[in-house]
Amino acid sequence: MLIAMKRELFDSLTPEQLGRACIEPVLLPLRGKRPSVKAEVYQGLTVGQRALFMFHVWHDHACGSALEFYCWLAYTRQEFSYWIGIQAGLRFFDQESIIALLEEMNDVLEERNERLGKSLADVTGQDLEEDALLRETVDRIYHDYRQHVPDTFLIIYRYIRSHPEEFVSFSVE
């Protein structure tokens, strides 16, 4: 499912804008759809689109705050296919540093849940209000994540610009 785009627009977009322009037309119609519909669309994507899709599934939900980062990580860990897909997408773009941060956050979650006898389904934003050490740890990991994101957008941008045939169909006009 290539995205129709004018070459002039493709050439003018910033790193973050280009990545979004190459996947949002796929992502936006899927909001609120059944997992089977999402899986069917995902299967029709190129390898590069799949990686970009999963990066945005992660980033767009987790980037707004440390709270969103914490809760979305817990959710994606419950949805195993999401977790595997997110890691695969990040690996495709050689984002081992971000994967390491997500794994560190996962370890924090698992240790906390084991200590308290809770599951991932029990994770809520209130955890951060009630546990100062958890809040401090999540804030640090989230801050580190945010520091890496501009480089991730740049790497994705360079990949798309080097492989436009995986993402766009240039329209004539």
Summarize the structure in words.
With 173 residues, the protein is mainly alpha-helical. It has one domain (3-166). Helix content is 72%, strand content 5%. Strands 1-2 form a two-stranded parallel sheet. Helix 2 crosses helix 10 (132-162), helix 6 (66-78) packs across helix 10 (132-162) and helix 8 (96-116) packs antiparallel against helix 10 (132-162). The longest helix is centred in the C-terminal third of the chain and has 31 residues, at 132-162. The protein starts with a strand and ends with a strand. This is DUF4375 domain-containing protein.
Tally of contiguous helical segments = 10
What is the mean predicted local confidence, pLDDT?
Answer: 95
Helix and strand run: EHHHHHHHHHHE
Give the N-to-C terminal Cα separation. Answer: 21 Å
Structural class: mainly alpha
Query: What number of domains?
Result: 1
Largest sheet: 2 strands, parallel
Low-confidence segments: none
Beta content comes to: under 5%
Which of globular, elongated, flat, extended, rod-shaped describes the shape?
Answer: elongated
CA radius of gyration: 17 Å
Q: Got a strand count?
A: 2
Estimated helix fraction: over 70%
Describe what is shown at a glance.
This protein is mainly α and 173 residues long. The chain has ten helices and two strands. It is elongated and about 60 Å long.
